[in-house]
Amino acid sequence: MSLPPEKASELKQLIHQQLSKMDVHGRIREILAETIREELAPDQQHLSTEDLIKALRRRGIIDDVMKELNFVTDSVEQELPSSPKQPICFDRQSTLKKSDGTRMADSTTMLSISDPIHMVLIKTDIFGETTLVASYFLEWRSVLGSENGVTSLTVELMGVGTESKVSVGILNMKLEMYPPLNQTLSQEVVNTQLALERQKTAEKERLFLVYAKQWWREYLQIRPSHNSRLVKIFAQDENGINRPVCSYVKPLRAGRLLDTPRQAARFVNVLGYERAPVIGGGGKQEQWCTLLAFLCRNKGDCEDHANLLCSLLLGYGLEAFVCVGTKAKGVPHAWVMTCGTDGTITFWESLTGHRYIHKPTNPDEPPVAEQPKPLYPYRTIGCVFNHQMFLGNCQPSDAVETCVFDLNDESKWKPMSEEAIKSVCAPGATTSLPPFPPLCASTIDASATSNEIEMQLRLLVSEHRKDLGLTTVWEDQLSYLLSPALASYEFERTTSISAGNEEFQDAIRRAVPDGHTFKGFPIHFVYRNARRAFATCLRSPFCEEIICCRGDQVRLAVRVRVFTYPESACAVWIMFACKYRSVL
Q1: Residue 532: exposure state from Cβ atoms within 10 A (0-12, 13-18, ≥19)
Q2: CA angle 574, 576, 581 (to 5 degrees)
Q3: Can you give the residue ranges of the CEP76 N-terminal domain (predicted)?
Q4: Cβ count near 226 (within 10 Å)
Q5: 554 DSSP assignment
Q6: What's the rounded Cα separation, in Å, for the pair 447 and 497?
Q7: How many whole angstroms separate alpha carbon 529 and alpha carbon 510?
Q8: 241-291 tens-digit pLDDT
Q9: Which is more confident, 457 or 103?
């Protein structure tokens, strides 16, 4: 690390002032004399640098100098460009600055950090399917009062959902603070702090519950039919704990892993969809997963997808809300809505990545022309919320197509107190969920995975045709020509823009001779199990017709393209194709 000349001279001046202040020169002279007189042999009059350093260290002078050089931390909020010219900065008082994180927080500061450690246990079978086994919030601060900053814990992990009261196992853990704390707290102090926090949390939850009940009574007094609307204030997490729905959403920045809101929508879309398991009848099981549990198992219900997408859109600076309502046939559903600065209302379907512009219709006005049916699948809406706001729909009709989304009009949307929401959902509140984990980059090698799935599909097709008494001839060039189409399909899913199809069609026309017929079948998956994908393809009559093609000079082709996203989510595009000579 090199310093500019002016900074180097400033550093020298700092060291000189410190040495003069502590009279280091005088103490060195004393040590020199003492060392020569007591430690050197009578016949050895030369004092080496090594002898001097040993004497200084033995008497603690080097340690004293280092203790007097104070290091301070500066918390830098914005991202600064790296500058090779000024790697170190100095302030007016000649103290060395370093970036935040170079100094260990003291035990008292650590004790004030109330966020628990969230641990998630998942099970992965031989086919790569994941199952959520347990979700546990560990109170780690007992280590602050343990001797030498080391403690051992035994925790019982409980199941999730309908099995949240069933034990799944015991976990033995050893906690150790690193770097070690300079001073540990007494266990009594730690226990007292935790007890006070529990009391404070219980009181906040009680007050919010009282307020929520009062708000609900006022909402029902507006119109008795409100009782049947989907106004969801609380939701159970994977552990069966009731939490305010606003606590499931927080602004989430994807760093450099996702560049645009539409790419974020595509990422959420390729995460698997799975409804919470139900034991017996009685309808849908209630379970909203915390973000870490959702990302660890890479699949979840529509509410999990909507919460994640809303959090990402908030991170991009959009005014986003989760909407709770119904789809066709009255099926409960959750999706995302953004409000533009020009008043444009956009619906985002988190399960498909589709976007819809909402244009309300006035049911009281006679239509000048027949109103087109809305393209979106939503029928009713009961409430909208994000990390700061909760609003209940109090318009005469809860039909989405007639709703006006002027959220500032309290005659149409009844708001909850933002202060009340903040008391239980704001970052750092002891009742809220811990900070969302940052998204992780994909660990999947897209090219290698694409090749592997493609080779497996070739074997499966060949075996299937062999069972039918058919031979299989693959044409590699035709397979390669399918790649642009798959890239175009994914680009269109991400941006809603179609591009590159003309070049693909022109290449296929050149590759298929006169008198031959070409057929192609693209299909999309969000998993990488080739056998499962092949079985799904065979259920399509058009795809089965290609795989089982009979005719003269039949040539088959298959192309697989894996597009990776954060958290090892992926979009898998497969295209089967064949060309054959038409025989009349």
Answers
A1: middle
A2: 165
A3: 10-69
A4: 18
A5: E
A6: 24
A7: 33
A8: 889 999 999 999 998 999 999 999 999 999 988 887 665 555 556 789 999
A9: 457
